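Human: For the file, kindly provide a plain-text protein record giving the amino acid sequence and the backbone structure tokens, at your earliest convenience.
Assistant:
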Amino acid sequence: MKSLRGFLFPQEGVFFDLLEEESKIVSKAAKSLSQLTENFDHKTEDYRRKIKDLEHKGDKLVEQIHAKLNSSFITPIDHEDIAELANTYDDVLDGIYTFVNRLHIYNIKKTDETIKSFSKIVLATTQEIEKAFCSMKRLSQKEIDARSEKVKKLEREADDLLDRSTAALFKRKNFVEILKYKELYEILEGTTDKCMDVSDILRNIVLKHS
């Protein structure tokens, strides 16, 4: 079995290390999101600050990755693949922060069961992506395909949840509330879409190099 770390990142595994750190940051943000929505007490500022800090760390890591790419003459994996993977991870983190920021700005008084369900899906997808990342290191096509299928299943659950929850929203009478919650639902569903994109990129990298 080939070592993807040695094959793709021969210079001390710098790209792998940075991407792995970014993956950990995304997972921390997803866990914070789940904790916030499950134990909502109207005090979103602490969580918003925590996730914003994680977002800043993620942005700095992406900048480091791009700087390394610009200074690396040749990489065994396409520069575009590394950049796309880093950028898409960052989109997931941005989605999580955008949601928490909207909660704060809109002065949301409670997180409903739909938001809790979306948050669980986001957390589950990021956990599967972490496992897929480990499979990528080992060039395990079988494992990464299994993780990818789980991510796709979770993303379909999010799609179905958005359809059901949006239909239910329009039965409410408060139009402003409808607009707020509709946007919140869509942000979280869009974040699961980005998670699936990350999974697909990882899978394609393994397909290219296995």
User: Anything to note?
Assistant: The mean pLDDT is 86. Residues 59 and 90 are 7 Å apart (CA to CA). The domain at 11-209 is CATH 1.20.58.220 (Methane Monooxygenase Hydroxylase; Chain G, domain 1).
